[in-house]
Amino acid sequence: MAGPYLQQPSFLLATLKADCVNKPFAQRCHDLETVIEEFPAKELHGIFPWLVESIFGSLDGIIVGWNLRCLQGRTNPTEYSVALDFLDPSGPMMKLVYKLQAEEYRYDFPVSYLPGPVKASIQEQVLPECSLYHNKVQFTSSGGLDLNLALNPFEYYMFYFAISLITQKNSPITHHVSPSNSAYFILVDTYLKCFLPTEGSVLPPPSSNPGGAIPSPTPRSPAVPFTSYGMHHTSLLKRHIAHQPSVNADPASQEIWRSETLLQIFVEMWLHHYSLEMYQKMQSPHVKESFKPTEEHVLVVRLLVKHLHAFSNSLKPEPLSPSAHSHTASPLEEFKRVVIPRFVQQKLYIFLQHCFGHWPLDASFRAVLEMWLSYLQPWRYAPEKPPQTAELLPRSVSEKWAAFIQENLLMYTKLFVGFLNRTLRTDLVSPKNALMVFRVAKVFAQPNLAEMILKGEQLFLEPELVIPHRQHRLFMTPTLGGSFFSSWPPTITDASFKVKSHVYSLEGQDFQYKQMFGTEVRNLLNEAQLTQMMMKCGTAQDENGKKQLPDCIESENGLILTPLGRYQMINGLRRFDVQYQGDTELQPIRSYENATLVRLLYRLSSALNERFAEQMNVLCSREDFIGRFCCYHLKNPRFVHKIRYSPVLKDRRNQNWGPRISLRFLASYRTLFSLLMLYFIASWFYIGPVGCTFIILFSYFLYAVIMTFFFEGRKPHEH
């Protein structure tokens, strides 16, 4: 086996690197296609890791590569078409993969870039449950503590392809880019249709040798002693291939490993970012998130979920005649039978639980919601079509899906409760948020669905009369023999066992289940609460004729919103009348004020207040008419309110700035315009500026005297 390409620099590699700078994209791809066709595998082995990195970007995200996530046919039609042709399952890149696969080359992938739970497990020398990592872990050649996975070319290529969705999240994305139209999204769909076909079998890979076949990965002895945690699943690859006398004996069995490998890589890279233990810790709001999925990431996962439903539903029905049972099902058909419960269910459930609990309360949650609803409705991706006469009527959910609903009970019930809790904290005034509630209600209102969910809950709550002992009863299929793919006997005891095993395997033996149709969940939004909300949500008025505050309680640090108060504020039903509580002279300059005049008048007022502070205090301290007259003009009233309309702290409400002169009202455009109009009108009566000023001052003096007598405490220039 040749060493890493960095240790064996070649002229070919140097030439291709230079072409990346000097040649256009289409020409580079054409040259690469020629190189792949003409050069032997020994030479191509040296350029393969560099080529994969130059396409999908580096693992640290520094090298963007071809930026497939932003490449769209509408904006870059030429590059878009060339890239898809080059990376197509029958294109030049996959031909290179199969060419190297025939020589059994291995390439190192750093364990440090794997998802968190997998990385932590391998670094602790505990073998992950997924067979994808078995017999692949090894130390680096330098002898350090860093670990690598020794991957075959197909695995190495798919690892980089899948993880580029995660590592390249900081690449520049323009606002007009639609993730579902990107080259990356199209390639995911293409690979799924090719390696997980709903019709026919997996297409055989192109071979450079006529009549030859590409060998499947051969088992390698582990380089590090590991202990396995959980129940170890035997790979379909080992079952169908490892014991074959020849790799060419059964072409269908030989190629099942590509389907399983592709699915395992996609699930591990996109979903396995939270282990069961980590999921339990993430329930605390004080725990910092280790991984934050993006909306694009969720859209790709939804594509995977939809295709897996279609793939699983394409399973051929079991024959009714006894003689037909003697025929052994193909590996691909057996793979379809277990693909969702064995490979996807647990990791997707934990992924969705994390999204429901930590996703922002905005319209971007729609992507998570649609992924969840897609998983809940496998019948949408079944090959049979409803009759045309029933298109306008709600389609009843067939009883044949009862087993799926029971074996995925928590997906329906606990996540539904999680959605209700999110809804109570969401702004339902927003049409986009209200639409999400409508979408969930429409799905769960499908005829017969609620009855089947209720039946699943009854099976879970059924007392254990037949199975006396329940200790780590995980619903995992046997690892040996044909019973791995065989169906369970259709008895009530067995159905109850399935439901209980599903729940306990995902949530643990001590899980306290909340019934979806129980009183506790119904009380989340019962009729009494809704009535109370409507009565308190802003229509009532207090004794001053003002809208009531949001529901809150008084504390030493001010007002604290109750859950009802948060709901009222989020939905715009009530609000605090937030007002400026500081020095009125220092409040922000308003749009109706002249900024220059505000600053000049503030300096003038400050100089006068500093110069005559003592005299103003003496005048305002008098108990006669002159004292009240001066207080009316100079003294700022205290901020005292019988009812609080702002969540300001207590120690900031009762501030008194003392007697002072305020000239800021003269900076108002409204005041300046009024004075200008008065001078203009006075000019019609042949009154000059001096006379007009005297009339204005005298009129104001009379007004101030009257106001002093009748309205003590009001300031004339409050805004």
Features:
disordered N terminus, two-stranded parallel sheet, mainly alpha, single chain, disordered C terminus, three-stranded antiparallel beta sheet, 719 residues
Q: Would you give an account of this structure?
A:
- The protein is mainly alpha-helical and about 725 residues long.
- The chain has a domain at about 595-710.
- The chain contains 29 helices and 7 strands.
- It has helices at about 10-20, 25-40, 40-55, 75-85, 90-100, 115-125, 155-165, 185-195, 235-240, 250-255, 255-270, 275-280, 295-315, 330-360, 365-375, 400-405, 410, 415-425, 430-445, 450-460, 490-505, 520, 525-535, 565-570, 595-610, 615-620, 625-635, 670-685, 690-710; strands at about 105-110, 125, 135-140, 145-150, 225-230, 550-555, 560.
- The strands form 3 sheets. The chain has a 3-stranded antiparallel β-sheet with strand order 1-4-3.
- A hairpin with a 2-residue loop joins strand 6 (about 550-555) and strand 7 (about 560).
- Helix 11 packs parallel to helix 14 and helix 20 packs across helix 21.
- The model is unreliable at about 1-10, about 210, about 220-250, about 465-495, about 530-545, about 635-645 and about 715-719 (pLDDT under 50).
